[in-house]
Write a structure and sequence with these properties.
Radius of gyration: 24 Å
Strand order of the largest sheet: 1-4-2-3
Strand content: 5-15%
Mean pLDDT: 80
Length: 100
């Protein structure tokens, strides 16, 4: 019997039990992954601060791109003043903060 053959000896109830246990295991796995991702995001948020209007942008800062992903600041922005984060049309910049 290969791994692709069907075992006819299982009852319908046993098959349903296997399906349910698989679904529960998969749900728990997804919840765990979501929880870990949330924890990582919270750590990320807690370790950064948004630059205020007029602060000088450093090469180590990050900018929020249109796709909603934080990325390293582009080289041509280094040394320029950060725009006002209160306006949606302006770029957002953040800086990592040392946590003690």
């Amino acid at each position: 019997m290969s791994k692709y053959d069907i075992d006819d000896s299982l009852s319908e109830e046993e098959i349903n039990d296997l399906k349910n246990s698989f679904l529960v295991e998969r749900k728990n796995d997804m919840e765990s992954k979501i929880s870990k991702a949330h924890e990582e995001n919270m750590k990320e948020i807690g370790m950064t601060r948004t630059l205020k209007k007029g602060e000088i942008i450093r090469a180590t800062d990050e900018s929020l791109d249109d796709d909603g992903v934080w990325k390293p600041v582009r080289a041509h922005m280094t040394g320029r003043k950060a725009s006002d984060p209160a306006y949606i049309s302006h770029s957002l910049y953040r800086r990592r903060v040392e946590v003690k």
